[in-house]
Design goal:
13% strand, 36 helices, globular
Length: 906
């Protein structure tokens, strides 16, 4: 790598994030020469038609008055082009800025497509692998880059350019092997000027993964003291946990878990936030684990898993004198495959799509230095945003070469499995546990005891795991790794063909034909989905959505036979090709990968066939967004996932403990127990059920008001009346407020009503689905005071706002299940057929548990306090409203006018 060339750093401020609707309101350009800023251009831009949203105004400090006197983009375009000249552009998350800029130039008749663009985000991801994230805000703080203010174009462009220079200089000092690899990956892209390609073959990578020997023999056995010795005053935990204080609730809870494991059985325990349940069950689990019986702890969220793994487990380890052997295990596709990575490095121009190169370069330094191979530890790569690329380099059973693999001894997935086999305390998440259950225990080592924390998520997670879904892109994302892109020569099959000797005409012909067969299968699937869409074009979704029970052909006149038949042709062709080339060592790994991809298509087709046939009364089958073949999804879910637990899990497990802060409905755990199949005539093990009291008095720290004066939520006038109250009340609140909605549409209407009022007062209003990614909104809200956050769905649970970060929580509507959702409709119909009162036995318990989750956002520690405003008058006007009011022990005030609400929140 030579001295950094000259470039122009650019940053834009826009009216929003949508390319087709929003416009540029500020352009800043900074020219860098020899790594130093030498000139700049900063222009406000008057938008032609797009409105300046209050959130953007608050974020940037740019006002509508500022823009009124600014020039329009057409007047500034020439000046911008002249400043840039023929230099490359550098931006942070360059796809956004460059696309906006090129689009704006096109509108005024200027060609700007040939400008070379470099992304400082990519370069920073390569250079800085140990930062929490790669946002510009974070990197400027971590690297000490001075910036006068954030979210204004000129300071951001200057910081972006300086970051680019620093990252480039750091990369220059990296291992020569990495620089050589970057040069090969960058060839033919905008990066090739920066990364020089060497001649000859790339030497084999030296991976840092250490060998993990297989463990023989049984687990260690040791006798630990009773849990009471850990949790009592001056007990064992007081030696290792700073500030530990004994709590009777915690001691009682731990004794329940200990007794359940000792006697063997099932138990459901609700323990509120702040009761110390994590440490209590962890000590009980550790005590049992060291006796030689493996214990699994399963959680729903990454946050809790991280807390247990990085904080709680290390804190108690010294008390077990080396006899506690913990391990964490994730799904196999979380781990890197060294062989697949090496295959791509041997032919990046063919095996990587053009838009995958940046992300592949970003993950490469981690890939050669990681000692675990767990992609979750790599902050430079988001596998959720790069699913197809990650699938090309992640471990999978279908493409594994086993002991024949040259990297077998260093395989990250194998190492993780061996560590799990050697452990007596195993930490997993619900998704992996359920996958193991659905695959007849093929993924986890054998175990005797399980503790499920965040167990309230298990019923829905079970439905998702045991259900089946197919979509066009479910097929397409697998097929695109095999097939060349349009007019391209990339893809697995192209690379396989290039390695087949020219004289082997039969194999080359089979390879070409397989490419055509898979492409034709994709076309057949597309036509099938299009036929469904056309059939439904004039049909509106009923109360239960686009539900079908008797098969797609019978109900929608779309015959899946052509899809299934064409797939069988492709499958036979693949078997033929792989047989013809199986003896060629140059393509052994590639054939294994292609075979693995065909196995994925086989699973897709198995799900597809199950879905199109339907015809099972204990499942619900339905279509989602069926009018576009690219968005159509076919779903099937069991009506009662508890049956799977009853047949596969409870009969043989020694003990299982289900725990969470929100499992009970009015202090009763039977609803959760029924959903999990824990009770019933066919369940011989009777579970132990217990609800623990709160460790602190919530009523003294939480005030609740219910608005009686609003219309019922079922009436047409409710929405306008609700928004009128929000507009009159929220802008006057001086502390942080979160408003929870039960539908996106209601939230969006409220945002439209509140935005101008908040803007006029210069206050911050944030809205989920409007103002950017959720994690960014949450972080901004936590830092602000006097802000208001509007949210739905994911903000009802799993997000913490301790202390002053949240002081007023507004519940707009009781969170009853949506009766138009097919699964809800299916469960309702099933319960009705059994003679049950559906509203009482299903809708109320579901809403009750969801409301408890929402209220839990307010009080997270014993020092938190705040107010709750409930704008659903059914709590005080309907007989069932008392059920919900008992959550706060009926201690609420009633608002008869909006003035009552204003006094309450002031």
């Amino acid at each position: 790598m030579d001295k950094i060339p000259a470039f122009v750093a650019v940053d834009l401020e826009t009216t929003g994030l949508e390319f087709d609707k929003d416009e540029i309101i500020e352009v800043a350009l900074v020219r860098f020469e020899n790594g130093e800023p030498v000139d700049s251009l900063d222009c406000l831009v008057k938008p032609a038609s797009a409105e300046l949203r209050p959130f953007i105004e608050s974020l940037t400090g740019i006002s509508r008055a500022d823009l009124e006197s600014a020039e329009d983009f057409a007047s500034l375009a020439g000046k911008i082009c002249s400043f840039v000249g023929d230099l490359p552009l550098v931006a942070h998350n360059a796809n956004f800025d460059s696309k906006f800029l090129k689009q704006s130039m096109k509108k005024v008749g200027i060609a700007f497509d040939n400008v070379r663009v470099w992304d400082s985000l990519t370069l920073s991801r390569i250079a800085y692998q140990d930062v929490p994230n790669h946002r510009l805000d974070t990197l400027t703080q971590e690297l000490g880059i001075e910036r006068s203010r954030a979210h204004r174009a000129l300071p951001d462009a200057d910081a972006c350019g300086k970051l680019f220079v620093m990252a480039y200089e750091k990369i220059k000092g990296m291992d020569p092997w990495l620089l050589d690899a970057f040069g090969r990956i960058a060839e033919g892209s905008d990066w090739e000027i920066l990364f020089e390609k060497k001649t000859g073959e790339l030497p084999e990578a030296k991976f840092a993964m250490a060998e993990v020997p297989s463990q023989a023999g049984s687990l260690p056995t040791w006798k630990a003291p009773r849990v009471s010795e850990f949790l009592k005053e001056d007990g064992l935990l007081s030696r290792v946990v700073e500030g530990f204080k004994p709590r009777l609730n915690q001691q009682d809870y731990a004794s329940c878990v200990e007794r359940n494991m000792h006697k063997g059985g099932l138990c459901v325990l609700e323990a509120p936030t702040g009761s110390g349940k994590s440490l209590a069950y962890l000590v009980s689990a550790a005590n049992k684990a060291v006796t030689g019986e493996r214990v699994v702890i399963s959680t729903a969220t990454h946050a809790l898993q991280s807390q247990l793994w990085n904080k709680d487990i290390p804190s108690i380890m010294p008390l077990y004198e080396g006899n506690l052997v913990p391990a964490i295990l994730k799904g196999r596709d979380n781990y890197l495959c060294l062989r697949k990575l090496s295959e791509i490095l041997s032919a990046p121009e063919t095996l990587l799509a053009p838009d995958e190169r940046d992300s592949f370069m970003a993950i490469l330094p981690w890939a050669v230095s990681t000692r675990s191979g767990d992609v979750g530890e790599c902050s430079s790569f988001s596998h959720s945003r790069n699913r197809v690329l990650w699938s090309k380099i992640s471990s999978s059973a279908s493409s594994c070469s086993g002991e024949k693999c040259p990297y077998y001894s260093k395989c990250p997935a194998l190492a993780a499995k061996r560590r799990a086999m050697a452990a007596n305390l195993l930490l997993v998440n619900h998704s992996l546990f359920l996958a193991d259950l659905s695959l007849d225990f093929a993924l986890l080592p054998s175990y005797e005891h399980v503790v499920f924390d965040e167990a309230h998520k298990l019923p829905d997670a079970s439905n998702q795991c045991f259900g089946r879904t197919v979509s066009f892109f479910g097929f397409r994302n697998v097929a695109k790794t095999l097939l060349p892109t349009k007019d391209g020569q990339d893809g697995l099959l192209s690379e396989i063909r290039s390695r087949i000797p020219e004289e082997d005409a039969a194999a080359r012909s089979e390879c070409d034909q397989l490419t055509a067969d898979i492409a034709e299968t994709e076309k057949c699937l597309h036509r099938f989905f299009m036929k469904i869409g056309k059939k439904l074009q004039k049909q509106k979704a009923g109360r239960g959505g686009f539900v079908f029970a008797n098969g797609i052909l019978a109900e929608y006149e779309a015959d899946p036979k052509s899809v299934l038949d064409q797939y069988e042709i492709a499958k036979s062709r693949a078997d033929s090709l792989f047989g013809l080339v199986s003896g060629n060592p140059r393509m052994e790994g590639l054939v294994k990968d292609a075979s693995g991809r065909m196995e994925e298509l086989k699973r897709f087709m198995a799900d597809f066939e199950f879905l199109v046939k339907a015809g099972r009364g204990d499942w619900v089958f339905y279509l989602e967004e069926p009018f576009n073949p690219h968005t159509l999804k076919m779903h099937a879910y069991p009506l009662d996932s508890g049956d799977v637990w009853k047949s596969k899990f409870y009969p043989w497990v020694k003990s299982a403990t289900f725990t969470s802060a929100t499992l009970a409905v009015q202090g009763d755990l039977m609803y959760f127990s029924q959903r999990m199949g824990l009770v019933g005539a066919d369940q011989p093990k009777r579970p132990f059920l217990k609800v623990f009291n709160e460790p602190f008095n919530s009523d003294s720290r939480r005030s609740v008001m219910v608005a009686r004066y609003l219309p019922k939520p079922s009436t047409p006038e409710f929405g306008d009346a609700l928004n009128e109250t929000l507009v009159q009340v929220l802008p006057e609140v001086e502390e942080n407020t979160m408003v929870l909605f039960t539908s996106i549409s209601a939230m969006m209407k409220a945002q439209a009503a509140l935005a101008p009022v908040f803007a006029a007062k210069g206050k911050l209003l944030l809205c989920q689905h409007v103002d950017g990614a959720l994690d960014g909104l949450v972080a901004m809200f936590r830092k602000s005071r006097g802000a208001c956050l509007l949210g739905c769905q994911s903000l009802w649970e799993g997000v913490d706002f301790p202390g002053d970060a949240l002081k007023l929580l507004v519940i707009t509507k009781l969170p009853f299940p949506n009766p138009s959702e097919p699964l809800v409709a299916g469960i309702s119909a099933d319960l009705k057929a059994k003679g049950e009162n559906v509203f009482k036995s299903y809708y109320i318990p579901e809403a009750y548990m969801e409301l408890r989750q929402g209220l839990g956002r307010l009080l997270r520690t014993e020092n938190d306090s705040g107010k709750v405003l409930v704008l659903d008058n059914r709590v005080v006007t309907e007989a069932y409203g008392k059920t919900f009011a008992r959550i706060w022990n009926m201690k609420h005030a009633t608002a008869n006018t909006v003035d009552d609400v204003k006094k309450f929140v002031s």
